[in-house]
Write a structure and sequence with these properties.
The protein is an alpha+beta fold and 621 residues long.
Amino acid sequence: MSSLAPTPSASAAVPRPLGACRRRGLAASGRPGCEVPGSSGEKERHLVGTRRRGSRCRSARESRDDGNEASTAGEANARRIAIVGAGFAGVATAYHVFRQVADAHAEATADGNDRMVAPVRVTLIDEKRVAGGASGVAAGLLHPYTPRGKIIWRGTEGVAATLELVEAAENAERAMEATAMEATAERDEVNGEEKKKTRPTVSPRETRGRAIARRAGVCRPARSLKQARDLAKHAPASFEAGGRGVTVSAEELRRLIPGMDVPPEVLEATKKRPSRRSLEVDDDDDDDDASLLARPLTRADRKAASAKRRREKNAPVTSALHIPEGLVLDTTRYLASLWDAARLLASSGETPEGCSATMEIRTVASIAGDPALNEPGAYDAVVIACGAAAGSVQELQGDVLPTQLQGGHVVELVPVGDGKENGWPDDAPGVLGSPYIAPLGPERLLVGTTKEYGASVADARRAGEVPLGNIEDDEKEHAPRAPTPKPTDRVTYSRLEIASRASAAARELVASASAAYPPLALENGAWRVDVVRYGVRANPPRSNLGSLPLVGRISAASDDAVDADTHKKKNWWYVGGLGARGLVYHGMLGAIVAAAALSGDDARVPPELRFDPGARRTVDE
């Protein structure tokens, strides 16, 4: 199987650090933008790449996308890639496939290379829609920090890669809206007079916020004295590493978010000036005293423990970590627009003639058993990127994947009455923590998430909005909550139990969120629950680098993954285990998986992420 020619450079698969990143996306080429069909007078241009003459943008929110027409020659030479899963990883991979093809095409054109870059046709497959699973339930709080204030593995690099995709999505949304407006204006001529009116491209439920991205920063308030010390301790080093988070006092926190609660112990500690000894706290303070319990304590042990307590008492504290460059994304709107960006790029002059991006709404129970995927010459590569539902694919069932499935509910709160009076302040940041508060706009807050262990693949496939009764009435009647299962349990709930658990989860989330931000309390009558959603995430195993996602070729997991004639591994890939960090890592992962699928080369996957689905099964057998 031939790879993309010319082959994309290795640098295309791995984004550069935040400070060195070149702004890319659809606006990166510096070439003239697309001419909007139907415009009159001076040509209106948008930074979405140069589209071919005669092409027309269609909405990606349709259940089936017709895609873009390809020439006969393009169809004959095109490479075909199927991506199963339209969440963070799947949509990012689709976009990066065309981005890397466009880069290779530009390089070949600039060098006068006689070799033509083969077009690529991507089919995105999902049983619901774009962002129909856990990715559409995610908070959308973009930042590179751990709860203790450290930077996660390649966190700033991941954020930079995501920001490039956000820019591409925003450009695509503007282009799609402008195209829809101009096309509508063409059709609405009455008595020779043109009447312009806008036509929405997404439903009101999907456009939950004012925009794809809310740029007011994010903030992590310290909810305990230990966290206040951790944030103060790690903030300087994290800032130098590119995190750009700064510590703030209780007064500054309340100015950022009026009405925010500060725990009494944190408030009292911040009033005390730390002694000089606070500067002598070393990295060994992170170690616990578990090792001391395994043997009798010596005098040296007691002395060391006493010294540690003194250092902790005098250590600096902070009320919160403020990350001004943090974002809050409307994830459903963002992913739908990113898919539009991929479609626009496929139909633009930046990519070779014959590229296309289409979507199919259906299930894939098996790669080898799917007739469409295995039709001769149908697809050169298949990528499984369906998150916690990956276990529904036959080749990945059983003990193939080491991920742990964790369910969770989130609630969307809206102000009662006048949103201007009760709404979230326009310039207030989002709130990190358990629970988090993600303002999609002044009049809609996303609050989450509960931690519900024992989730199954079937639970993952029912992700989305959950119907429930009146929260206030349930509270008055003291409706009992079903017991929370243990992490190792696998449970199945009836429809009534699902609604009952959703109501209980909503009450729990509102109660815990109002403890941190009292105005949210339902009894205050300022906010009410509008929507409850449920999702399941696939948590990866922890390593010495933290919880990292998994990328690998599906080989040992199935005999069908090896070509019977050539005995070579088929170009089948798995990407998953994004856990709670899908928003940070999906941009970087999309570039890596796209390069691997286009080249068929395992070396495109960094060793820290490389995973062979089914390797454990092979060892056990």
